[in-house]
Fold:
Amino acid sequence: MKRPEPLQVVKERRDGALKLLVESVPYISFMGVSFDRRGDELTAVMAFDPKIIGNPVLPAIHGGATASFLEIAALIELSWQRAWGALEEGSADVAAIQGAGYLRLPKTIDFTVDYLRSGLPRDCYARARVNRSGRRYASVHVEAWQDNRSKLYAQATGHFLMPQLIVDE
Amino acid sequence: MSEIPQQQREKIAAQFIKALPFCAALDIKLDSMNVSSAAMSMPYDKRIIGDPETGVVHGGAVSALLDTCCGLAVSLHPESGKPTATIDLRIDYMRPAKVGERIVAEAEVYRATRTVAFVRAFAHDGDRENPVASATGAFTFSPFAKDAA
Structure:
């Protein structure tokens, strides 16, 4: 029987791939979005910053900032899930995963945001669920909340065009 | 008071847009206003790139531009009496925006009931006939009470 890999090696590979995926996109850091990973599960976090305010009177987070946050969460989850399978095969390192095109981002076809509550001047969290991911198309649902997980402040559904893997080209 | 003259409505709306931090962050500018419609634009910026391979702007920035423009169109409706909020907004991305080009959004309220304004919008990067994205949304709407005072 094969000995399991040391924990540190596994963690470094997973975190390395996620870091490459997230840090390659300038808009993700512009929006102050980061990802918290527990195993394969990702939680997107948008740190509150006064620049994302859309209504200074309330104050409330701009709907466009919320839409951006949800779209980022959906795109990363989708890419991450596909890369995860390749990462867990163990033979591939992060550079090989990237070389095979696993870290290429899908393209958004459409995205529908449902605004449930106004976004308070606090940090936001989101989790995305891939409902279907085929070779060409994928459908993803995202839920976002602030203080209370059971009180969503926004949710969204989007369809995406999957990038072709280099091995397929 | 049951109505605000269009000119004054536009002045209030322009001031409101100017005060929005997120619009300032994306450098979104107000281009034109009319009854129930508006046009706004956003310059290309390396910080808002969504696809590092091509340099194309992230869809989220385009939806922020469209959302703002739709909200502005609602506030320019002659019966609009209170600030509006987005109920839902759907964006269709037709093609990637051209790298380096300014993105222009145009929005119009095509129907307003006593509670909801229905808005259509599209975004292009120079050619109105070849849009980058389109949007349809529902916004909260509170008309002035007609029989008040």
About this structure: The domain at 6-140 of chain B is CATH 3.10.129.10 (Thiol Ester Dehydrase; Chain A).
